[in-house]
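Quick question: what would this complex look like in 3D?
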Amino acid sequence: MSRRVAIIGVGMSEFGELWDKSLRDITLEAGMYSIFDAEISGSEIDAIIIGNMSAGRFTGQEHLGALAADMGGLGNIPAYSVEAACASGGAAVRHAYMAIKSGEHDAMMVLGCEKMSDVNQTEAMKTISVASDWEWEGLFGATFPALYAFIARRHMMEYGTTEEMLAQVAVKNHANAAHNPWAQFQRPVPIEFVMGSGMLADPIRVLHSSPISDGAAGLIMCDEKTAKKYTDTPIYIESSTQASDTLALHDRRDICTADAVVHSSKSALKKAGLKIEDIDVFELHDSFTISEIMLTEDVGIAEKGKGGQVVLDGLTEIGGQFPVNTSGGLKARGHPIGATGVAQIVELALQLRGDCEGRQVEGAEKGLAVNIGGTGATSIVHILGR
Amino acid sequence: MSRRVAIIGVGMSEFGELWDKSLRDITLEAGMYSIFDAEISGSEIDAIIIGNMSAGRFTGQEHLGALAADMGGLGNIPAYSVEAACASGGAAVRHAYMAIKSGEHDAMMVLGCEKMSDVNQTEAMKTISVASDWEWEGLFGATFPALYAFIARRHMMEYGTTEEMLAQVAVKNHANAAHNPWAQFQRPVPIEFVMGSGMLADPIRVLHSSPISDGAAGLIMCDEKTAKKYTDTPIYIESSTQASDTLALHDRRDICTADAVVHSSKSALKKAGLKIEDIDVFELHDSFTISEIMLTEDVGIAEKGKGGQVVLDGLTEIGGQFPVNTSGGLKARGHPIGATGVAQIVELALQLRGDCEGRQVEGAEKGLAVNIGGTGATSIVHILGR
């Protein structure tokens, strides 16, 4: 009974501190580029779904669905937003996947967006904390760098993970971003530079941390029949899964394992009938470099505790067996919260199409993205194939 | 290919200014009552979807999906929020409808919630304005009472609608709420009382306006097969539709017609194979009394311009041909923004089950709900049947 769901177009705004653009400007930009890329007419789009965390606090505007339909001139079509903290973008992709599979919609525009630089740094940090357990974490001053510092310190103690390993993730991702025209930081950084950067929450340094970013990403998703009208080479969503964990870090079974990621990546591979060795390219949610190390373990690229070592060994570089974050990841492409999960899918689609000049994984056929919310309370996994 | 979607359980927190309860308390309450009502085990629920507009601003907490899964002890199941301003609740119901229809989920908990009384009135009014076109309306001081005043004044000028008609909507809805144990205002009000209440934005008075409320509502939704395990009398969702209009009121073709409501209610009736005369009970989004009058026209109960007259004629009372807002509506049941669209479906399900003592529409078999966002930029329509 099931309909296959395809991606036929992708679009991005640049990521960065975009002082001269508004939330509506960048969202429209990503949407329009994805329409151009799909070579589809706007009149064929029959719904819009937006991933966004906190436009109400960052910009004073919610109701982004209706806004996008209005600004995009797409008429009276259904439109709304989904929110799952930093996994809001992934939630939007998963929503569109289900809506198309259900037969309610045939061709949807999926947008992820966040404009974070219109408020000051203190307000931005407070707003990001709405994704933590506010009554038990945020309220007591536990910012995200602090929460991830607990994870990193514990990982170092349990498994001998080193500061050099944490730093090497940033070095790799910056090197990848140097070839990504939409990335916020398009330049390599030497490891000494990372290891000497300012301390945020020991052992998390500025260059272990994703930046505050503005940006938007877009996809045109549709059922197989519609896809074949527009392209001979659609990218298919092979599986879409999601899982939850406790909102507060201190309630977890083990703070060095994101159980939601373990559950959702296992079930995604199973549903797609694939093994981890079958995946050619990965986008893993590296809000902090320790997060990429942990997720490398939780999806099965490395054994638990070896996530730091595989980075040093080059296994997750482009050219290695399991290339991770060819886009530059959250670390260097930037992390406009609601846009991130959609941007991950944009990167995988481009990789599978062979359109990633300078950072292409040769012959990539399968890609896997993990988009997490908070410290891993939400995990959304998508496997793409061509 | 299509799976039918049923409602097998409903639950509500009380609606009101709940000073001694937090957002998590009331959300959990609605969820637990809906589980009790369905007599289902929590372990059978395989996803949670939450309708909420702006918990980030009202309470400092987003990421409500993971929070609900965590607080409810429902384990690692997928969970996230949807937002479409005041139509967020309806969007959650529609999302669950599609997720179940797609085959990705079998039994879902749908929650709508908002805790609005934890901030002061000025901040609450500003936060509500995130649902308007902030750059063109909210920023210039056009609050929702002001925007609806434009509609009301124009409706009076075009069609001779009177202050008495506006007031009679409030009288009717308060009379209904007197029999609703969850309503914020469980008492009748005489028409003199409404017509003499304080002026907010001429001609909109305090008692033409829905209140600021705290509250949550819940549903257990599932596919037909699962439903039949738990009840012999499931309530089915016969159709679910959505449409958009311009975000800003001044961009509309005609501010006295909500085109999104016209489109979505027409297509909902068509998909369900029904005519307006077949519907026995209605929940229409009466954020202001002029809104109920306008929607009465836009769904086809009254001709355009006659929406005020039918209220005076008693057509929309319980016992009339087209009973509207038997729950008391947003006006008297209360309007905790994200909860409203779910609470509408709770009321219709209870009506179709015959569980509305004191306000029961005898023999009701079909119900229709319209949940709108902003001044009608989003409209979501559900038709329920037994």
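Answer marked as accepted. The radius of gyration of chain A is 19 Å.
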